[in-house]
Amino acid sequence: MSTTDSTAGTVVTVTGEVPPAALGAVLPHEHLLSDFAPPDDTAASRLRLYHAPLTMDLLGEIALGAPNRDNWLLGDEELAAGEAAAFRAAGGGTLVDVTTAGLGRRPAALRRISAVTGLNIVMGSGGYHPARAGTGSGPAARTLTEEIVRDLTEGVDGVRAGIIGALAALDPGEPAERAALTAAARASAATGAAISVGRSADATTQRRVLDLLAAEGADLTRVAVGHCDALSPRPGDLEPLLERGVFVQFDRLGRLPSVHSVSDDQDVATAVLELARRGHAERILLSQDVRTKAQLLAYGGGGYGFVLQQFVPYLRMLGADDALAETVTVRNPRRLLTLANGRTAA
Questions:
Q1: Where is mean pLDDT largest: 40-49, 137-146, 179-188?
Q2: With bands split at pLDDT 50, 70 and 90, how would you rate the model's confidence at 138?
């Protein structure tokens, strides 16, 4: 398996194809415009808070996990542009918005944000989230494959996707979820685009997911497995993933600590250094998965700049050198996003 840096080929952004060297520092798993609100919380004591506009006086309750519809809705294009510009000013070059159609994806708005900020934005396609899919069996794999390939090659009103996903953590034993994984693999094989998929809750399901992707034609070195933060206190638990050649993605960085936190940024930093020591530096990705207003600078959060402004300096304090910092923020996501074999999806 080769993990050499990608310098040939092309990356598809919402404003067109760009050379890989133009990406700069990349956040590979984010949301600029999205809607992650679950169904109404019907408990009477929580219904008022769920439907209230997000204001500063509610942020304490929100940080502790109280549900709020407005918090989960990123729908203000002007606000998103301001937050994207702040990431650009912090040294960021590219943001991958893995919001899919069922979660409020807005291709034309992403293109406008990219144009006004100068930030490269890569759009996702083909995600599947069981909680939003209802009880039906869902479209067939062939139909889903055609939809994803169309997103990657023709685009939505001319705005092309540059990565497949993000897919949720899916179970191949469920017909609709198996179809989604099959379609993602086939579309990846057809276009050279990478796949972003959530980490399964157990090792057996994870192995079946990767087996299915590989059997349907996906190159596992072109797959990013997200939400690996929870395993960071036990880096050895990531070895079965790394042995398959996938990228392990720590994408919950920069969140305020609470009893609901599933990981700690310090644990992730320690895991990054340990995995690098074991020879896995070229399979690590870092991101923040910003998806709520409370995470934005405008609402007192850290915005999209945490990885570059705080996490990477912390890695350096722990002993990371310039080469490792560049590998995990620039070179690895560049390889992920560069279409395989130098293909163009057009």
A1: 179-188
A2: low
Residue 93 per-residue DSSP state: E
The per-type count for the chain, helices as H runs and strands as E runs, is: 13, 12
Task: Report pLDDT digits (tens) over 228-262.
Answer: 999 999 999 999 999 999 999 999 999 866 555 55
Given a contact cutoff of 8 angstroms between Cβ atoms, the answer to whether 318 and 273 are in contact is yes
CA dist., res. 322 & res. 336, Å (int): 20
State the Cα angle at 28 between 236 and 285, rounded to 5°: 25
Nearest CA to 289 out of 26, 24, 31 is that of: 31
Question: pLDDT, tens digit, for every residue of 39-73?
Answer: 655 544 466 667 777 776 676 666 666 777 788 89
The answer on pLDDT for 295 being more than 50 is: yes
Query: Cα–Cα distance between 214 and 182 in angstroms, integer?
Result: 9
Q: Distance between CA atoms of 272 and 71, rounded to whole angstroms?
A: 31
Q: Are 307 and 27 in contact (CB under 8 A)?
A: yes
How buried is 65 (Cβ within 10 angstroms: 0-12 exposed, 13-18 middle, 19+ buried)? exposed
pTM of the model: 0.90
Instruction: Using alpha carbons, select from 233, 287, 223, 284 the residue that is nearest to residue 262.
Output: 233
Look at residues 177, 107, 184 and name the one whose alpha carbon lies nearest to residue 148. Answer: 184
Count of CB atoms within 10 A of residue 270's CB?
16
With b for 16 or more beta-carbon neighbours within 10 A and e for fewer, the 125-146 pattern comes to: bbbbbeeebeeeebbebeebbb
Strand, helix or coil for residue 95 = strand
Among the listed residues 63, 25, 82, the one whose alpha carbon sits nearest the alpha carbon of residue 309: 25
Q: Considering the chain, what is the average pLDDT of its residues? A: 89
| C-alpha span between 333 and 282 (Å, rounded) | 10
β pairing state of 25-30 and 92-97: parallel
Residue at token pair 């930030």: 119
Distance (Å, whole) CA 74 – CA 66: 17
Q: Which amino acid is at 267?
A: D
